[in-house]
């Protein structure tokens, strides 16, 4: 309270964003109000445009502006490899790394009895069908190194067993530039178990 | 990089908000993408609406949707008292506290040679004219307890001297619920100097 109603409504909506509480939403809106022309209007327009045009790719679950996303339609991307990620953010991170030239499958979460997320919600049957139809050679599981992520990875590996496709997962270890001091025990343990001769 | 161009543009604009860096802007946009209908579309609409309709009150500098803000046009607000604040955020904070029933004057900053903010930019001549025209009894300086805030307060007190209006400022001291341990030395010193007999 304190600001006019329309502005309070805007602050309330902004406060629902992750990383912004009520206080910082208020500060953000104030800054927008000071930069109505150069920032607030373009931001509103960009957001409205994306809200209207964004859609989930019907093949892989990536977000784009067409029924099929740019990665699925890019003839230069290898069809024989599918990288399975939990989330579109993970797909973006993989793309930023620029190390993978195949296609993706976005689960949209991990198996979770609590959240009512089963294999169908995560589009796992669709993944099995893709592997068969696209004659996939390898499925790379790039799931988070959490309990839920690893449970989901095992479930997918089992579901794909009958197809004969090779299933692999990202190596676990010390991140580049990572200081042992700041890593959790699980990471250090995994890095030790996966140690390589140098 | 990683997301489609339109979405990257949106992330770039969001990252310019205070409290959101590039990483959290990305997370915020991802959350908006997941809630396109219930959150992203209404947020875009609310923002576009405010960007179009918001304007600075020609009397006091508060932000509203008309030429003159609701506080300046509210006949129940006392005209004899003007509370001077640096920023619209401070006006909102005062209104949330609900302790002041007069009118405001929003400076839009503090005197700063560095930022090229002089008396004219801060609407100080306009304040002097208001005090004369509105027959103001008291001007309450609710400026931040910073060096710039206090320099500005002194300048305004000098500028108003000839009008004969009473000029006061908010009391400094320990905030309610404030633990001495967590207060800076300046606050403790000011509270000690302003001590009252109990
Ligand atoms: Zn796709
Ligand atoms: Zn006003």
TrEMBL record, chains A, B:
Keyword Lipid biosynthesis: no
ZnF start-end (C4-type): 57-72
Source organism, top-level taxon: Bacteria
Toprim domain location: 80-175
One MF term in the entry's GO annotations: DNA binding
GO process annotations (BP): DNA recombination; DNA repair
Coiled coil: none
Listed InterPro entries: DNA_Rcmb_RecR, Rcmb_RecR, Rcmb_RecR_Znf, TOPRIM_dom, TOPRIM_RecR
Keywords of the record: DNA damage, DNA recombination, DNA repair, Metal-binding, Zinc, Zinc-finger
Function: May play a role in DNA repair. It seems to be involved in an RecBC-independent recombinational process of DNA repair. It may act with RecF and RecO.
Family, per entry: Belongs to the RecR family.
Name of the protein this chain belongs to: Recombination protein RecR
Organism: Gemmobacter lanyuensis
Gene that encodes the chain: recR
